[in-house]
């Protein structure tokens, strides 16, 4: 009698080119964060990931995210079964897929210090952990970045030229959003 060890793994279409690891990225505007308490997560803060069991045997697993105050599992659809949140075990049949909906809830940006340069982008990192019943685990990197809108009015030092005290002058200023 011979046994071949089975190492379960789920396939995901979101593999990074740099590291070859699975990763899911979020990008949203910080202006969306202020309204989230009233209306829930904006669509830019939600991602769907489709995991597939490539094996010829059923695979049982459980999902968890960390940090849970920044990322959350909204729902998992496996076959005709839909569960809310990450709780419980799921069994994927051979070649079966499951759809996982994830939310990104970034903390509000810290207030800028007086006269300090503004940070236009700040990020949060986390992980979606797939724990298999066999004891192995698979990790999917999670990264979220809210962008902070900023208005710029170059030049920073307008040149009025030579102006007589009885006259007026005004330079042309272009207002832009560099984000």
Describe the structure.
By secondary structure, this protein is mainly β. The strands form 2 sheets. The chain has a 5-stranded antiparallel sheet, with no helix packed on it. The protein has a 5-stranded mixed sheet with strand order 2-10-9-4-7. Helix content is 4%, strand content 38%. The chain is built from 2 helices and 10 strands; from the N terminus they run E-E-H-H-E-E-E-E-E-E-E-E. It has helices at residues 31-34, 36-39, and strands at 11-12, 23-29, 46-52, 59-66, 71-78, 81-84, 89-92, 97-104, 124-132, 137-147. The chain is elongated.
Number of helices in the DSSP assignment: 2
Question: Rg to the nearest angstrom?
Answer: 24 Å
Helix content: under 10%
Q: Give the helix/strand class.
A: mainly beta
State the gist of this model:
The chain has 179 residues and is mainly beta. Helices cover 4% and strands 38% of the residues. The protein contains two helices and ten strands.
Question: What structural keywords apply?
Answer:
five-stranded antiparallel sheet; five-stranded mixed sheet; mainly beta; 179 residues; 2 helices
Set out the fold topology.
Elements: E1 11-12, E2 23-29, H1 31-34, H2 36-39, E3 46-52, E4 59-66, E5 71-78, E6 81-84, E7 89-92, E8 97-104, E9 124-132, E10 137-147
Parallel strand pairs: 2-10
Antiparallel strand pairs: 1-3, 3-8, 4-7, 4-9, 5-6, 5-8, 9-10
């Amino acid at each position: 009698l011979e046994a071949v060890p089975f190492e379960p793994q789920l396939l995901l279409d979101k593999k990074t080119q740099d590291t070859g690891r699975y990763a899911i990225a979020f990008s949203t505007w910080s202006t969306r964060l202020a309204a989230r308490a009233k209306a829930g997560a904006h669509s830019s803060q939600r991602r769907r990931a489709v995991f597939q069991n490539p094996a010829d045997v059923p695979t049982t697993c459980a999902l968890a995210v960390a940090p849970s105050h920044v990322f959350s599992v909204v729902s998992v659809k496996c076959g005709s079964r839909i569960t809310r949140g990450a709780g419980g075990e799921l069994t994927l049949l051979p070649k079966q897929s499951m759809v996982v909906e994830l939310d990104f809830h970034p903390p509000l940006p810290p207030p800028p210090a007086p006269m300090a340069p503004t940070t236009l982008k700040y990020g949060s990192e986390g992980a979606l952990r797939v724990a298999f019943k066999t004891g192995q685990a698979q990790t999917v990197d999670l990264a979220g970045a809210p962008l902070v809108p900023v208005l710029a009015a170059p030049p920073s030092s307008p040149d009025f030229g030579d102006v007589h005290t009885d006259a007026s002058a005004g330079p042309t200023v272009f207002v832009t959003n560099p984000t």
